[in-house]
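ARCHIVE CARD
Drawer: 12
Card no.: 0347
Subject: one protein chain, sequence and derived structure
Cross-reference: see card 0346
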Amino acid sequence: MSGDRESEEPDGVWGPVLEIACDESGSDGENLTGGNTDVFAHGSVSLSVASAAAAVREIRDRIRSPAEEYKANHLLREKHRAVLEWLLAPAGPIHGRARVHLVEKSYVVVERAAGLLLDGPAEAPALYRAGHDTFGEEGRRSFLEAANRLLRVRDNGDPVEAFYGTVEALRRAHPGTEAARLLGRLAATRARAVAYRAEFLAGPPLIPVLNPLLPAIVRTAALWSGDGRPVRLVHDRQNMLTPDRIAWIEEAAHRSGVALAGVRLVVARDDARVQVADFLAGIARKIASDELNGRGDPALTALLRPYVDPDSVWGDARSRALLAAPPAG
């Protein structure tokens, strides 16, 4: 820990700055349609080091696994259901001191495609619903995969041709529908897509348009600094968080009026607060994914709800209503 901190106050308060520990679960980079998970979660906690360490010790004492490092999967095992419920419960160690920002990956693909090709993301909800209501599962999957290929930085082949071929095939398959109208608008945007792909010839962009981690970090800072108090984020190290991207995060936060005092990277196993954030992120990702796919556990969903950011990036209306509590006021 930095030597300029004279004392640690309860609940992660360091003098005038609130220090928030963060970690993520479900990161597949820009591969949002063919990765291992359909949900990305960014967890954050406002705990003192001592409180977080006590929570980790309690989890270890209750689970009694010989594993050197515990992960969310330990708590998600059915035989440890009581430990999971204890962690999330109103009387548990993180209630009121933790938040999680959720991202439905397929919706991000639709939202980013609409933002690039249709003058902003306003058409994203209608396009997302069209995928569910009109395209059918196979058509929806083909659209998402083609859009993901178009938007991601690296792709072998001709992602522009693949995307517009898919758009045209779906448009012919569903004439006279609202989905066909939206697809017709997309069909007229090929020049924008060509220009977007051409920009990559000069080198990959600093901020990949599809990677959910960087905007999630900015959103986490906004969640915790809503009262105007500056926050410092302590985040698990990972390759995506280069010095240039951390500078972008800080600049993006400041442009949005978010009082972000900085981002500090640590090794998760060396900071109990980050370990607890990792538990929350992994637990939230699994509960949210189950709810998204119609196999949710009502009790666990209810326990998670107070932690979920109401501004999570989520397209599915049914599961969103179950997962996210309405904003205060």
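Annotation on reverse: The two ends are 38 Å apart (CA to CA). The longest helix spans residues 124-151.
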